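Final report, Chapter 2: Outcomes

The project's central promise was a pipeline that accepts a single protein chain and returns its three-dimensional structure in a standardized token representation, suitable for archiving and comparison. That pipeline is now operational. To close this chapter, we reproduce one record exactly as it appears in the project archive, with the input sequence first and the structure output second.
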Amino acid sequence: MKIDLHLHTTHSDGNWSPTELVAHAIKLKMDVIAITDHDTVSGIDEGVLAAGNKLEIIPAVEINTIWIDEDGSGQDIHILGYFIDKTNAKLSELLQRQRAARLQQVERLVAILNEDEIPISMDLVRSFAKGGPIGKVHVTNAIVAAGGAPDVSTAYARFYDRNSKYFVARQSVTPIEAIDAIRAAGGLTSIAHPGMSSAQDHSDLIKQLTLCGLNGIEAYHSAHSDESVSKLLALADRLNLLVTGGSDCHGPFEEYESLMGTVAVPSDVVARLKLAHADFAPAST
């Protein structure tokens, strides 16, 4: 069974529309995928329609959150939600708050760029979003179009680096709020790519979030080393957590090919998720 439970489309920061993403998944003979756009579920219906009976799509989302440490510093923590009811009121309200915060962040960045005589506008940014939620990919493309950077990679490094004079922090919900909203929508939660940075050990945080309803750990990820995978699998076992996995594919980019299907996710991952959801779902209604 070929599985990828972490995929992005143009509805957040991916380069493929849901239809294009699903077409590629079918071409690769994927069996089960999840569209996990950042802070939005707007691409799921299009993906499901494109898939027909050729592919199973788990309704999902990735929520960008901020965890404030005891010393007052914040760190980005992403929470994945699977088997969600995308029409749930509590989840919808939280995602709307997230999108509003993202819009405020982009508007502030555009104002700073204009002060630096980079002729970018919100209309230009929206033209790249094509009616969908605005994400970093749309902003960086607009910056390139406005002459503020030679390419998207340079734009991202220059304007989104935390040490950049252009960096604008985004207000965001906490991981606990994201977990609560996903659970209210009948979904299972998993912390995304906790082994992505070797400089951070999220073990203590994961233990705390487990007490708040976290269901799983994304152990399998394209940016995880074999050592990280082993450590995360062991942690999941100790804490009696589920395991999830995926490529975190954003589609092809410049000379880079799509990552879809490049992460070997064991077939029992989906089976265990379904069993857990079957037990959990009645409690959410």
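Archive annotation: The longest helix spans residues 89-115.
This record, like all others produced under the grant, will remain available to the consortium after the project formally closes.
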